[in-house]
User: Fold this.
Amino acid sequence: MLIRNLKLFAHFVRGSLLAVASGSRGYYIWLLALGILIALGATAYGNQLTHGLITSHMRDQVSWGFYIGNFAFLVGVAAAAVVLVVPAYVYNWGPIRDVVLIGELASVAAIVMCMLFVTVDLGRPEFVWHLMPIVGTPNFPHSLLTWDILVLNLYFLLNWFVVTYILFTAFKGRKYNPRILLPIIFLSIPFAIGIHTVTAFLFTGLKGRAFWHTALLAPRFIAGAFCSGPALIFLIFRVLRKFGRMQISDTALFKIGELLAYAMAINLFFVGTEVFTEFYAQTAHTVHARYQWFGLHGMSSIAIYTWAALCFNVLALIIFMVPKFRLNMNILTLGCVFSFSGIYIEKGMGLLLPGFTPDSLGEIYEYTPSLNEVTVGIGIWAVGALLFTWMARVAIAITAGDLRHATVSRQIGP
Amino acid sequence: MRVRVRGYYEHKEVPAEGKFYVPIACQQCEDAPCTTVCPTGATWQESDGIIVIDYDWCIGCRYCMAACPYGARHFNWGEPNLPAEDVNPNMHILGNKPRTRGVVEKCTFCIQRVREGRMPACHEACPVGARKFGNLLDPDSEIRYLLDHKRTFVLKAELETHPKFFYFWGTEGRS
Assistant:
């Protein structure tokens, strides 16, 4: 039985590799474009490895920047798969189940990107093994960073198992066994909340940084994740429906729009409560929020992004709330673009930079990422897109019935 | 993509009109937030109270810099370029040994000196004797006398990091 399954799994892997190796002209152009971006990113990272993080614009005052901002945002995207998992499996609601598989694939790609963003932020990535158990000395349970690494890896394994299991059983031509799958999916729900909560606690746990030392940070992270993740999955679906032969009903897509209405309303409510608390009864600590919304001493390059994020999110909420807009596929798409970009600003660098500005001694260092940092970041996003493309290709081939054990055996022999 | 800075110390000549100077260094907190957050345990408090970093074990994640409320930790963003003739051969592995690129460093109260019973370099260099250093546990020490008899304060006391770096007014009658 085990031997047979291993043999089948080997076929599954070979079949998957065949599926990603061939495609239309458009597919190759897409791969080429991603390949170029990855090569550019790798070159920029090579430059960083040669000269050090001085190639970034991070300095002692703002010691985390673009990389950790992207990391915090992407943890949210990874966590958001759960939003779709709950209705699909728990309530056994049909149309959205197609959404889940793609959502889980997006999570896997997002976690890989998270790990890459943290790795490129390290001053000495060659010593990353100091974090690992047995060979290293992880400062567990004291350091929240060790918690984050732990839950991210476990969440990655859970998601990876779920998608592999669903696809492998479909490959064998069978239906998945809910008694194996459901407990793991149930487990992945608290983990999704967990990865984002722990990531928020990374910041909340720092008593010297007043801007982040608020109990609202973790709930805000979760609310933001529920806005950015489903929006991204919606956009992916529209693309896959157009280019990827993916069958997905309008009902499922509109359901995402409905979920987004709740998520964005809560997210904006949280923004409002935070703004009220900061500005109605101001303290010395309000200086960070002032920098975030208005700038300080004429240094206000971040303020325009803060207001842009607010506008994007408000527009998104209007689109999600008004049935006439929400049930129009093109307007809903626009809403998802607003939601995703609004949260990218708000939960990425918008959250990070005011925490460091002014710094703990009152110095204002107005950080903007260097070209090298941005190029490395684009490379990582391209890696995520490539990984997702390949996984989605296999998933679509299998769910569409093109990639089955029977057909693969004929192609590659028994 | 320009970077603008408004520093807290931007005068060519000191003292500048209307300014009050507060020299700062690692506060050697009793409850140091920086050591708790280190994911690899590369920084800790020695039994004599000094917070140190193992420069060979630090991976350069800079979480400790985010945790420090005093801006006392510094990162080697580029390749350190201390000329060979300026390197102090009297070294301590947790103190003034040359750091590499990509690790965090900090003040160690000149561990290479104080462990030999000498004073930190800043104490020795100060032309007016404004810095005092000593054993807090020794009831006869000068530092103990100052803490017991002068008006002292610590920075950001509300954070309860319990610094072992105190500020005091040496002149009687002045606030």
